[in-house]
Amino acid sequence: MRESSGSTNIEKTLLKVVKVFKLFDIPHYVCGGFAVQEHGYPRFTVDVDIIVPDVAFAIEKLSLNGFRENPGSKMTVMDRETKVEVDLLPGGKKVDPGPLTLPMPVRVSDEPQLLTLEKLISAKLSTYMGRGIERSQDLADVVALVQANQLPRDFAVDPQVAVEFHRIWDGLYRN
Description:
- This protein is α+β, with helices and mostly antiparallel strands.
- The protein has a five-stranded mixed β-sheet.
- A hairpin with a 5-residue loop joins β4 and β5 (about 85-90).
- The protein contains seven helices and five strands; from the N terminus they run ααβαβαβββααα.
- It has two domains: about 1-115, Beta Polymerase, domain 2 (2-Layer Sandwich); about 120-175.
- The protein is elongated.
- The chain has helices spanning about 1-5, 10-25, 30-40, 55-65, 115-130, 135-150, 160-175, and strands spanning about 30, 45-50, 65-70, 75-80, 85-90.
């Protein structure tokens, strides 16, 4: 998928980020479009979304190691080589008006740590519930992930988004 869409630089950038995070003991979770791809729905994405415990600290360390801060954003850096943006999200905090906070990463690794499918779907549903049509891609991702992974109706999403998950599941499978 990444080769055919010309987005191999996204993976290259992610691996560079993870290397810096390992060097400075920064735990992380990969979320967003890249995680959606890795969980079975091959869709296009142009950036990398990563949850970290301390966004400012992560930006500081990335800025010293091949990335530059984006003017006007306190949560985004760009890979100087690939020109791919990296959106950093604060673990344990709400970034949208949805019901959930972002999970707090705890594991440092030299490999990308993907958000589990349960947490990814829960986070996407929370964002969609909080911001509505403006976040329709999150809804589309959830629908596609349910179908691609043949998820059951009782899939272990967060209880705060379970009603919305059931509504989506019922729409797909109970005609």
